[in-house]
Amino acid sequence: MGESMGAWNEGHREDPKPCREQDQGLFEITGRDGRARLGRLHTSHGILETPALLPVINPNIRTIEPREMWDRYGIGALITNSYIIWKHEELKEKATKDGVHALLNFPGMVMTDSGTFQSYIYGDVEVGVEEIVNFQRSIGVDVATMLDVFSRPDMTYDQVDACVMETLQRAEVSVNAAGDTMLNGPIQGGLFRALRSKSAQGMAGYDFAIHPIGGIVPVMEQHRYKDYAKIMLATLPYLPSQRPVHMFGCGHPMLFPMSIALGADLFDSAAYALFARDGRLLTPWGTERIESMVDWPMLMPCVATMTPGQVKEMSKEDRTELLARYNLEITLNELNRCKQAIRDGTLWRLVERRSHQHPALREAFLWLSTRPQQAMMKLKMLDDLILNDRDAGRERGDEAGAFEEGWNWLVNAQETPRKGGEPWGGEDTFVRPQIVAARRQLLDHWKPSNIQGRGEDSVLIMHGSPGPWRERLSDIMVRLTHHAPGLEVLILTPIGLIPYSLEDLNPFAHIDGPDWLWRRRPNLPWIRRELTRLDLSERKIVTVDMLGDGIQGRCMTALHNAGVLDGDDDQTASGNPIDKERREDAKLKVYRRLVSDKLSVLLNVDHQAAIELLREATFVVNRQGRVKNAITPKGEHIASPRLGDGGLSLTDAGAVALHSMRILNPPTGFETTVADSTFGAGPAWVVVDDDAEPFVRQGRNVFHGFVMAVDPWIRPAQTCLIVNQKGDLLGHGLANSTADEFQGFKKGIAVKTRGGIAQ
Predict the structure, then answer these.
(1) Active site (annotated) includes residue 113
(2) Is the terminal CB of the chain with fewer CB neighbours within 10 Å at N or C?
C-alpha cells in the first residue's frame, strides 16, 4: 500500500497485491518511538501499514460504502461482524458463494468479529465456538476472531476469572479450526491486573496472529481512562511482541496517542457513524454537537465548502452521511499525526498535550507517568489527602508499585540519546520515558574517576546556563584537571546532574525552556540526592554560576574558599598560564575522559577498561575544542563523538577492540532479564546464523529471521556487535529491537549494520 496511504484520493485506487506466500501473517516493525511502532502486517489482501483504523461496517447499514473507504481515504482494512452475516440467510448465502470481500465490495484486508460483543449486549449468541471460526474461514476473511467470553467491569474477580479460563479453553479448538486463516486471540480479564496478565500469558501460548484487548468498550464509555491505561500496562508486556495489538472497539481519536505510545497497533470503531447519527462530531479533545456549532472545530475536506448551519438544514440521512465522513476524516487525521510523531520521536510529547484535553485522560496520564515504585505514599496520614493532580494519579493500597514490571517494559524500549532538543513541559518532563531511560543509563553506567589528588573530597557543580557547555568550560576544565585532578566537575541541568565529560549529551544538554529554568538557584537537598545516586554522596559541594563573564575567576575563588586550592595554587590557576607541556598533558586527560565516559555510559564498556583502551590514545579536535576522532597508538581510528545528539559512533577498528575485551561467553538464547553483573560487559552481542555471515561481513543489515541469540541488555538504537555462533566478530551496528522483539520477530530489520569485518 506504500507511502501514499496518508493521501486522500479522488477516483479509483488500484486493488492491493497479495503478500508473498512465505510472509502471510507476519508482522514487521519499520519505525519506532519507544513501544510505539510503525509496522507492516502481511495478508493475502495486501500489506496493512500500522497503526491503522479498521472502520466497523454493518453489512446491513453502510453509512459510507467500503469501496469509498478504500478509494478515497486509503483505508487498508475494515472489520465486520461474522455473526450478523451468519445469522442473516441472505448475507450468509452471498458471503458463502462469493466471499466476504465481494459482499462488502472491499479489496483490502477484512477482519471479522465473532459475536462476542453481541453476547455482551444481548446476553448470548446462538453459534458454536468451532462453528463460527469455520464459517469465517469459509467466507474468505483475512483475519477471523475466536468466540471469547466478554468480561464486564462490574464483575467480581471469580466471575472474570471464569471468563478468562473459558476463553483459554476455547483457544485450542479455535486455532485448529482456523487452519491457515489468521486468527485473533482476544485478551480478557476485566479490571483485574492479575487476570489480564494471566489471560495474556495464556493466550500467548497459542498460534494467534493478532491479540485484541477485549472488554474495554464499557470502560471507555464510562470515561475510565485510568483503568484503560492499567489494562494496557497489565497486558501488553506479556504478549508476544511480534503479534499486533488490537484495541477492540476503540476508535475515538482522543485515545490514539496514549494507546499507540503503549504499543497498540490496530483500532476499530463504529463511532464515526454512530456519533454522526446523533449529530455528534469527534475531535482529538472529545465530542462536540452539531446543533451548537457556528464554526467547525476543525475544518476537514468534506465540509470545506459548507458551514455548520448549512449542514443542519440537510435531511437527516444526508447529514448523517456527511458527519460520518467528517468523523472519519478527523479520526484518520489524528492517526496520521501519531504516525508522524513516531517518525519524529515526539509521540510522548503528543500524549502529554492530549492529556490536558480531558480530565479523565489527564488522570490516566498522571497515573501512567508516575513510576510505580515512586508512587507509593509513604505517610499514612496522606492516604486520604490529595495534594495536587500528580498525587491524585498515584496508586495507593495493594496496587501501589504493582505495575513496576510494566513500567520497566515501557522504559527499556526507549531510544537514548536522541537528536534534537527536548522541550520543557513542567513536571511532565521528568516522567517522559525517554528521559527516565537516559537518567537510568547515566546512573547505572557512569563512575567517578576516583583519582587520588587535590579535590578528591569535593565536587564542583556548575549551573545557570543552558548547554552544550564546551565553549564556556573547556579551558577551565584543562586548568582544573591540572590543579585539582581529583575533583569531579558536574553540570546542573533541569533533569539532573551530569558529569562535564557528557556535556553535549542529549537530552541533558538540550532542554529547551525559558531562561528561569536555567537560572533557578541550586536546590541543595535535591543535588545531594543526585550525588548519592552518582556515588558521590560523601563529597563536599562547591557551586559556581557559569552565566556571564569572569567564570574562570569565580570558579577558582570558590574552590579556594572551599579549601580545595591553597593560596599559591589559586593565584597560579586564576591568572598565570600553565606551561605548554603540562597544558597539553591536561588537555589529553580531558579528551580521554570525554571519550572513556561515553564508552562506559553509551556502550556499556567497563569504566577501567575504557580508560585503559584510551590511555595512550590521541585525538583529532576541531577549532571549537570538540573531539572528532579517537586514535589508538597504532593509528587506528576507533570512535567519534557525535555532534547531533552527543552520542558516540564506533568504527570497525573500535568494534574489533571492544570485541577483544569481551569476558562473558556468547549468548545462547533470548534472555530478557538484565543482571547487575552485565553492567560494563561491553556492547550487546547479536548472534546470527551461518547464512547471514557473508552478508554481514559486507556491511548488509541483519534481518530478524537470521538472529539466533542476543544479550539481554540490548536496546533500540544502541550500538551492538554482530557475531557468528563461534563468537567471531562479523560487524557492528545499531539494534532495531529489544531482546523480547529479537526473540519473536521473523521479518524486518533487526540490526542496521554500520560496518562489516572482513575475514
Answers:
(1) yes
(2) C
Question: What is the end-to-end Cα distance of the chain in Å, rounded?
Answer: 41
CB 436 within 8 A of CB 371: yes
Q: Using 50, 70 and 90 to split pLDDT, how confident is the model at 388? A: confident
The phi and psi torsions of 749 (rounded to 5 degrees) equal -80, 125
CA-nearest of 404, 577, 430, 448 to 493 is 430
C-alpha cell at 567: 593560596
Q: What angle do CA 495, 501, 507 make, to 5 degrees?
A: 30
Please classify residue 94 by burial: count the beta carbons closer than 10 Å to its beta carbon, then call 0-12 exposed, 13-18 middle and 19+ buried: middle
User: Given pLDDT bands bounded at 50, 70 and 90, which one contains residue 575?
Assistant: low
CB atoms within 10 A of CB 9: 12
Q: Which residue has the cell 577498561?
A: 609
The ranges of the chain annotated as CATH 2.30.130.10 are: 651-756
Task: Please give the grid coordinates belonging to residue 155.
Answer: 464483575
d(Cα 308, Cα 322) in Å, to the nearest integer?
A: 11
392 vs 749, more confident: 749
Other beta carbons less than 10 A from residue 712's beta carbon: 18
CA distance 26 to 29: 10
Which pLDDT score is estimated for 381? 45
Question: If we measure between CA atoms, which residue out of 439, 496, 491 comes closest to residue 467?
Answer: 491
Other Cβ atoms within 10 Å of 200 Cβ, number: 23
Of residues 446, 436, 732, the one with CA closest to residue 605: 446
Confirm if 181 and 146 have CB atoms less than 8 A apart.
no
Q: Is residue 259 within 8 Å of residue 232, measured between CB atoms?
A: yes
Sorted by sequence, the CB contacts under 8 Å of residue 493 that are 6+ apart come out as 467, 508, 509, 511
Q: Is 732 left (phi over 0), alpha (psi -120 to 50) or beta?
A: beta
Three-state DSSP class for 91? helix
Strand, coil or helix: what is 758? coil
Kindly indicate the confidence band of residue 400, based on its pLDDT and cuts at 50, 70 and 90. Answer: low
- Please tell me the predicted confidence (pLDDT) of residue 117: 61
Q: Which of 15, 23, 33, 113 is catalytic?
A: 113
CA distance 62 to 66: 8
Grid coordinates in use for 742? 529479537
Asked if the model's pLDDT at residue 122 lies above 70, the reply is no
Q: Which three cell numbers stand for residue 210?
A: 493478532
Beta bridge partners of 618: 631
- Tens digit of each residue's pLDDT (9 = 90 or more) over 577-616: 788 899 999 999 999 999 999 999 999 999 999 999 999 9
And the C-alpha cell for 18?
A: 497479495
Angle value at C-alpha 433, between 432 and 435, nearest 5 degrees? 70
Distance (Å, whole) CA 19 – CA 570:
73
| CATH number of this structure's domain 651-756, picked from the four choices 3.20.20.70, 2.30.130.10, 2.80.10.50, 3.40.50.300 | 2.30.130.10
Q: Is 590 helix (H, G, I), strand (E, B) or coil?
A: helix
Q: How far does CA 355 lie from the centroid of its chain? A: 17
**313-317, 481-485, 620-624: which has the minimum mean pLDDT?**
620-624
Q: Which whole number is the average pLDDT over 41-69?
A: 94
Contacts of 244 (CB under 8 A, 6+ apart): 27, 39, 41, 50, 209, 210, 211, 265, 266
* Contact status, residue 45 vs residue 142, Cβ threshold 8 Å: yes
* Mean of all residue pLDDT scores within the chain: 91
CB 592 within 8 A of CB 586: no
Lowest mean pLDDT among 14-23, 487-496, 621-630, 695-704: 621-630
Q: What residue ranges of the chain are covered by domains with CATH 3.20.20.105?
A: 3-351
Q: Name the DSSP letter for residue 655.
A: H
Of residues 164, 199, 170, the one with CA closest to residue 183: 170
pLDDT of residue 5: 46
CATH 3.20.20.105 for domain 3-351: yes
